Amino acid sequence: MLGALxxxxxxxxxxxxxxxxxxxxxxxxxxVAEGRTILTRDRRLTERRLAxxxxxxxxxxxxxxxRQVLTELGLRPDPDRLLGRCLxxxxxxxxxxxxxxxxxxxxxxxxxxETFRACPECGRVYWRGTHVQRMLSRLxxxxx
Length: 144
Fold this sequence. Notes:
Layout: H1 3-11, H2 24-34, E1 38-40, H3 43-46, E2 54-56, H4 62-72, E3 94-96, H5 98-102, H6 107-112, E4 116-118, E5 125-126, H7 130-141
Parallel strand pairs: 1-2
Antiparallel strand pairs: 3-4, 4-5
């Protein structure tokens, strides 16, 4: 329900667990065990006795959702830590040697990039291509 919000929060280096396969009881149990705040659009979920630490997301618009989460949870993204997590797995990215990365990225990227990072869980490789500027521009448009 909030997958896009989860990815944007991860782009801001916020530790976000997102698993659409979890049912409500599992989600609440895991959030309580890990001390997480539940972000949801499901009012019934917020009425569960153990789901006390939650934020009911009001909007369908991801920019408004992001602003709500940052404001209401008092989060202040550190510009130096943007794009430091795997957008898929949520783990902090680790440096990847350029030579090792070259075998795992498209040829154009291998020729034009020198700095790479990878997710230790899924192996996804990241670099600062033109998409990064588009993402940063989108964050500015969102008011972040």
